[in-house]
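Could someone model zinc ion with this protein?
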Amino acid sequence: MRTIRLIVSYSVCLFSTLYADPIDGYWQQKVDYNMEITLVDTSQQLTGFTTIKYTNNSPDSLDRIYMHLYPNAFQLESVKYREYIGNAGRASRAKYFKDRLDGFTSKIDVHDFSVALPKEGASWIHKIQILDEYKIDDTILEAKLLKKIAPGQTVRVDLNWTHHVGEMVERGGYYEGQYNMAQWYPKMVVYDEDGWNADVFHAEGEFYGEFGNFQVKFDLPKAFIIAASGVVTDGDPGWESVTVDTSFDFDVWVDIYDSTYVKPDSSERRTVTFLAENVHDFAWVASKDFLYEGGKHNDIDVHVLYDKGRGDKWTKDVLARSIRAISWLEEKFGKYPYPQVTTTDRIKSGGMEYPMLVMNGRESEGLIVHEYGHIYFYGILANNEVDEAWLDEGFTTTQTTHYMMNRYGNHGFDLSLDEDRTEFPKKYWPIGNDLHSDQWRVISFMRSGHDENISRASYLYNNGYAYSRNAYTKPALMLTELKYILGDSLYYGAMQHYYDKWKLKHVNEQRFVNAIEEYTGEELDWFFDAWLHTTHHLDYGIKSFKKSSNGDGTWSVSLGIESIGSRFIPLLIETTFEDGTTDRRWWKNHLWRYEDTFNYSVDKKPVSVTIDPDVQTVDLDFRNNTTNMKKTLMFDWPGLWYNPRNEYVIGWMPNFYYHQESSGFAPGLTLDFDYGPYESTTTRANYAYETQDLYWYLGGWRQPVHFFPRTTFHYWAYNRPGVKELGGEVEKQWNRVYGRTPTHTISAGFYVQPEYDSTRAVKLGYDPNGKLGVGYLDWSSEIGSVDMNVNGASSLGNLSDWNFTRLTVIGSLSASKKMFRFKQRIIVGKIWTDAKGVPSQEGYNIEGNSSNDMVRKNYLVDQFYGFELQEGESLISHYHMPGEGNLRGFVGKGERGAEALAAFSSEASISRSIKKLNFNIEFAAFADGGLFWDRLDETSNVIGSTFNSRTLADAGLGLRLKTDIFEKDLYLRIDLPFFIHDIEGSSFGKENWVISFQRSI
Ligand SMILES: [Zn+2]
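Reply:
Sure, complex below.
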């Protein structure tokens, strides 16, 4: 095997040095731009004179040409606009369009347009005009020609144009005094073996360009410092005047700079010319507040320009990160073909790549590595980003993950930059594996029922979320799997071959796959086709593990392997021995096989076996990958997560109940047994040693891995102070668009409460006179900021001593603008019952505090009502849990519930964050009210034959505090319903205070 590989790599080396530039049958057009650009800052306008020399290297004669006018997309009624309005693309960008682009419109006007051929044997001065007519539709200019451009012929395109620069929405535009100029000029559309790629600028989908040279001469106000793709060939970009002397402390240097730098006069102009050779796009950035730092990697100039206000984060670090990024890319993929690379600060969050220049909204190392990676994958290996976004986003996403994990460890980020990590409790908390997080994210999407094939034009994905999973995360994990099956050196060797062969050319899926197959000598269509053109899942499992001694100290292993999914991959099998050492070997009998037995022998007694031990594949369920799943026991810190792919996590937490009158102190322990999105089991036991009562809880949920997408099966049984219950529920969630409302959840379930410990149950608001069984069907919808809930419930025949049917409809909405928030809730409900009525726990409480909800909150079970404020008054009588009638002014008043109600709660509030103290404070004014009907005689508790109605209301003021302490979110609400209206009339009083750990609506 090794010799074969050596021969392969030797012949590949030979091949790559020998290959002559034209690859058989491959051609690409050549486009040389010469542009003169004037920036008029006062009107945010660019005027441009463009001359393009377009050489037709194709075998076809062209009767027309096309150009992109990308800025035109930022207009009302453009294709981009229409798609965003129709919910395509990313929601964060769609909002500008939904707000009708107020201030965010851009446009290119074309004034003169001509296409010409040189006269036979003469120069361009004697040109022959060949333009028939041109028209502009959306972002595409189409020019029909009188004479076809023959293969090998060069034409000259001249145009004058004006770009009205709008505020930045996506990639390019004006932002806080800065010009981030991407997709800013009339750009030739690519003509390739598929013909013209005259795609309009969709809501989702980036760019595709022809290679050539760009000479761009800028005339702009001198106060602007400018950076661009290319090298400066004439004039001064202004860098020297703003170069930071990093031998000083940054703040000290800025003070010196501020007191000495003379800002150029507004009438002064700067002219500077950039030349970018062998690129397919050209971008530039200009700002009056740029500072400059420069360095070198070998003979490559590395430039960094950042906003002065953000300098303390950018200084030194960004230059060092940029140099590290370019040296990593050269080492892993191949020599950088350009003389310079520039990192610029675009201020606005996000990042974007252009040849030789990136625009980054943060100083983050991961972002720099990602965008620099794009200069390779998009810039140098120039794919059509509209049709095959995965060919650049997937590649740079995976190389960034590999870089960060390689440099900082499996967690994949610089721990020293994360202040939280150095402090309690995160300091002692295990850090998740970066690759595992991406795998979980993709698994969740794959199981959602919304998965799509990776290979798809960006604008054809169902939504922005599907685009980001399919362009970024899924192909990134595909390449990690490729690295796993090839091994590091073959993987990087194959990537270098792909790079060498196709650098500065157009690439596509076939060219990439062929290059990998050429280098590795392996047929890999089975791998790429399944990943790129299907949504098949991968899930291998161990079916059996048999071991037998051979009598000579060696052991035979017979491993039954099954494929539960429908995607196949070779597996690395790790056998673990008694002494903890391991044996690793490959099972490669994977193709089109759902079951296999893998027989091998080892020289020690095996104790366990694991497939894919380094968790490199997107195997949906790791629990069946090993005969000895690792279990990690850890303290269950509220607010912190740890979710490994190959371990069960068992969280433990002590708890207690306290009730001074009956059980006294009852300490206990909770254990949570979890694995990813598939299972969670909670067990809890408390022992009251004075009364020798044992309280317990067992509950959890399961999600099937391969069937019933987004369906959860819940179960629970408990013996809590005063109440025993057994229940189960099936919950199914769906939405038309993944990750976006409307979201619907439908659940069906039941619970049975066989008997009550009456002294305690009464304290909890239960009617203890009989057993109770209830079945329910619940439908909840979230539609933007409106929530709807319809719940039907009914007593379960013999399992219940009461007989009733109940229908409840709840609607709520919230609206907020800046610091103001308004919330409204409406409930309408009715219970049909016989003469015995409905037990209080199933009726509608006036104030909320539904008995069942109260008992499910562990901290409300006992500790709270055990705490006496004064004689006969405990804290629980002031606790408000929202729900049912939700009239918070009636908490603790002992009002009997109702059998029918129509009630509302309204709240208007104003909030303020105090970031320094990590605190949010909110003041609210509220009003609750409603009509409540029951059949009891008001004075005698005798059931009447007709309904009595009561009109009840309250209003008041409240205060809410929100913070987190040691990562645990805390919310405290104090409401003062000083106005009360009941059947006795209206009253004012300040004794009606309530507290809560829950929001009121
Ligand atoms: Zn990217």
